[in-house]
Each structure stands twice: as C-alpha cells, then as structure tokens.
Specification:
There is one protein chain. 29% of the residues lie in helices and 41% in strands. It has 4 helices and 8 strands, in the order ααββββαββββα. β5 and β6 form a beta hairpin. The chain is elongated and about 45 Å long.
C-alpha cells in the first residue's frame, strides 16, 4: 500500500511537472500574475490546473481553470512565526494538537481565509478559519489503520 501511495504521489509530478503539459492560456495567465515564480510544478485535477512554486522564498499554490482564469492562490505561512491570533483558537479547540501547516487562501472573489492542518496524534483536522480568526469549518480525518486496511496492504505488496 505504501508503495502504491508513493507512486500515486510521484506520477502527477512526472506527468504534469512540465510547462508543455499545461494549456497555453493557463501558462500565460500564470506568468502574467506570478512574474517572479521559481521552481514551478504543475498538476491537473478535475480539469483545473494547479501550480506549486516559490516567490521570494514563499511557497505558493495557484489554481487556474482550463481556460486560464485565476481561481485562487494559497500562500504558506511558517507555523513557528504564525500570529498567536491564528494558532490560539486551534490549540484551544484541539488540545494537545500540533499545527502541521497554515495557508492563507485568496480567491478570485476577493475572499481571504486560512486553511490549517492540525494533528493530535490520533487524527488530522482540516480547518478553515476566517480572516478574523474564527473557525468556520473543521473536518476530522482519522489516519489510523484498521485491521481491514492492514489486510489490503498485505495484498498489494
């Protein structure tokens, strides 16, 4: 199972990691908005194109429609230097958790919010927080294997 997950993670990078796999209108729109982008890697998901890249050492993800319309940009925020206004509500609600990552998301509709992933050792929480630091949505995702999952792992190896 682990080998399969590794392959699933690598194949999109090999297949979509080059600019020539991206429609011209998408690549042109990207280059117009992110003129200083470095180390760009493209992936295609459900007919939309996502670029992961760096600008001035900040990690970003930008999503575009197939016709080149910019949809959203997510900018990584260093967890260690994140504002207490962001982290305090997370630590209060999810006691004992560790924040894995924080992204500031900006949409084409001028909506800004934070996407946060926290881990309490038993579950991963995917959290959406408003620009004024209110938790809007939270989804608990278990990552412990059940006996049934372990049996499937054995079959795949």
């Amino acid at each position: 199972m682990k080998k399969l997950l590794l392959l699933i993670g690598i194949i999109p990078l090999m297949v979509f990691g080059q600019d020539n796999d991206v429609p011209k209108q998408v690549n042109d729109a990207f280059q117009k908005i992110f003129t200083d982008a470095e180390d760009v890697i493209w992936t295609e998901m459900n007919g939309e194109f996502e670029a992961s890249f760096y600008v001035d050492e900040e990690y970003k993800l930008a999503m575009f429609s197939a016709d080149g319309k910019w949809l959203k940009t997510s900018t990584s925020i260093n967890v260690e230097s994140a504002s207490a206004e962001i982290t305090k509500p997370i630590y209060k609600k999810y006691k004992g958790s560790v924040i894995d990552n924080i992204f500031l998301v900006e949409t084409a509709n001028k909506i800004k919010f934070y996407r946060i992933q926290a881990d309490d050792g038993e579950s991963i929480y995917k959290i959406k927080m408003s620009e004024v630091y209110e938790i809007l949505e939270s989804k608990k995702v278990s990552f412990s294997l059940t006996d049934e999952d372990e049996e499937e792992d054995d079959e795949l190896e």
